[in-house]
Amino acid sequence: MAKLYFHYSTMNAGKSTVLLQASHNYRENNMDTYLLTAALDDRAGQGRIASRIGIGAEADMFRPGENLFDKVANRLAKDPVASIFVDEAQFLSPDQVWDLARVVDDLRVPVLCYGLRVDFQGKLFPGSATLLALADEMREVRTICHCGKKATMVIRQDDQGRTITEGAQVQIGGNETYVSLCRRHWRQATGDLPAEASD
Ligand SMILES: [Zn+2]
After folding, report:
1. I need a labelling partner for 122 at 20 to 30 A (CA). Which of 52, 128, 142, 181 fits?
2. In a domain? residue 176
3. Distance 185 CA to ligand 1 centre (A)
4. For this structure, is 176 an active site residue?
5. Is 15 among the annotated ligand-binding positions?
6. Number of domains the chain is built from
């Protein structure tokens, strides 16, 4: 039975690596896969999913407002695929997540989405919120904070290493960097932890 999957994580947990490995496993068994990534993410050049450990693969792109049911149906009409992989799934709109749910239910093809759960302010991305609501199965791609605890949060830093607590949810092409932290160290970095509780 086809399912909608949401593999969520914080930044730099290696979710693109996990996606590429899973897609590779299909292809190694002569089953084709269809890869999608957000058009606004140009870290790897247009139309490519790349991981920080150096592996990558060509991918089609989804854009804001695009009907993904039609896009996938058109792709499947040309060539059947065993599975659909979506990277940067936090950038899907709620409507696009529903499109993918219809792909699973009506076209009976599994869709595996990989994305960030929360932004640098600790708020759910709308696409991730809809995936948390609709996914048949969810899995966490884990990474750790500098203290060794599981990292679930992310801070945005400017080029001086200062934590930024305000700004747009999605910022493209700036000099900011992201650091994944456990919630306690996220609270410390964003000034929410009382000084006496800090370490
Ligand atoms: Zn920590």
Report:
1. 52
2. no
3. 5
4. no
5. yes
6. 1
CATH number of the domain that residue 86 is part of: 3.40.50.300
pLDDT tens sequence across 121-175:
999 999 999 999 999 999 999 999 999 999 999 999 998 999 999 998 887 767 7
Q: 10 C-alpha vs ligand 1 centroid, how far in Å?
A: 13
Confirm whether 75 is domain-assigned: yes
Q: How confident is the model over 77-97, as pLDDT tens digits?
A: 999 999 999 999 999 999 999
Is 30 annotated as belonging to a binding site? no
Q: Is 79 among the domain residues?
A: yes
Listed as own residue / partner, the contacts of 186-191 with beta carbons closer than 8 Å and 24 or more positions apart are 186/122, 186/153, 186/154, 186/155, 189/155, 189/163, 190/155, 190/163, 190/165, 191/163, 191/165
Q: How far is the CA of 153 from the centre of ligand 1 (A)?
A: 10
77 is an annotated ligand-binding site residue? no
**Alpha carbon of 181 to ligand 1 centroid (Å):** 5
Residue-number span of the structural domain to which 92 is assigned: 4-141
CB 95 within 8 A of CB 89: no
Whether the pTM exceeds 0.70: the reply is yes
Give the active site residue among 28, 58, 66, 88.
Answer: 88
In angstroms, the CA 159 to CA 174 distance is 9
